[in-house]
Write a structure and sequence with these properties.
- It contains 10 helices and 7 strands.
- By secondary structure, the chain is of the alpha/beta class.
- The chain has a single domain, classed as P-loop containing nucleotide triphosphate hydrolases (Rossmann fold, 3-Layer(aba) Sandwich).
- It has a 5-stranded parallel beta sheet, sandwiched between helices.
- α6 crosses α9.
- It is globular.
- It starts with 13 loop residues before the first helix and ends in a 7-residue tail after the last helix.
- Bound molecules: thymidine-5'-diphosphate.
Length: 289
Amino acid sequence: MGRAPPPAAFDFGFGRFVERLENQPQNRINSKSGGRGRPRPTRVSQRRSAKCQVLIYHSAVSPHSHRGRFITFEGLDGCGKSTQLEKLAGVFRAQGLSVVVTREPGGTATGEKIRRLLLDTATAGLSPMAELALMFASRAQHITEVIQPALAEGRVVLCDRFTDSTEAYQGGGRKLGSEPVLALHRILCHGLQPDLTILMDSDVAASVERARRRNKADAAKNGRGKHDENRFEQESRAFFARVRAAYLAIAAREPQRVALVDARGTAAETHARIVEIVRRKMKLAAKTA
Ligand code: TYD
């Protein structure tokens, strides 16, 4: 993996990046609703314009200013994220960009240990709040050890799942709601937001079935006695329907950051859609892998 600096066309510049953060809906407080349903800012900067007053969450802009690009992939188990992530990494690399491909839970030695605990079917009776805390423990380590240093070096970070997964699975699937997830994100991740999130929308039944088949095959390959990654795939259809609904709610709330991609076609079709989105948002030359 090379360390070539990003070409100029790819560099948005810090000012524009901050401006985009400030304009993200989650960083605004609607004066009519008084920001009801959103966490209150602990310290705010204020900007006045003719149209509106924008309040900025202190944590949303610091300390995570970066030169690189942070792109996350989200979706139900078995929707084909990993394939698409690798294909997009190939496109970036072909352009001479330095790419880091990583995942959550996991991405660091400590995070991978937490991942085993979280996904192993032998982990019985884990409370939803403990599960939530472990997801964020893995993430906090991942940001410090991998994501933030790579972004500071100007690299492209492609991450398989991030906080949207927690909001969808623990917030929606486990019914904890968005509030504790967003609060922990602010505290433990200092509000680090992806520049772009590709949300791969797929059919609940087909995706989960695909994930179950894949994990069964992996378990057979690994042999008995090894950990498996089936704990979430054992959840009900209703659980995954709640996960999908929570994802769609995030996409509706943050349309500037989250791009919803129909992932029900072939891998090549989905890849073409993703490249088009990335090209539009990040000024990437229109090439597919
Ligand atoms: P992953 O390996 O991406 O599964 P798949 O390849 O099947 O999509 O993710 C592992 C599981 O962890 C997945 O079922 C979703 C779950 N998960 C959460 O419940 N909360 C989270 O915050 C994250 C990151 C993952």
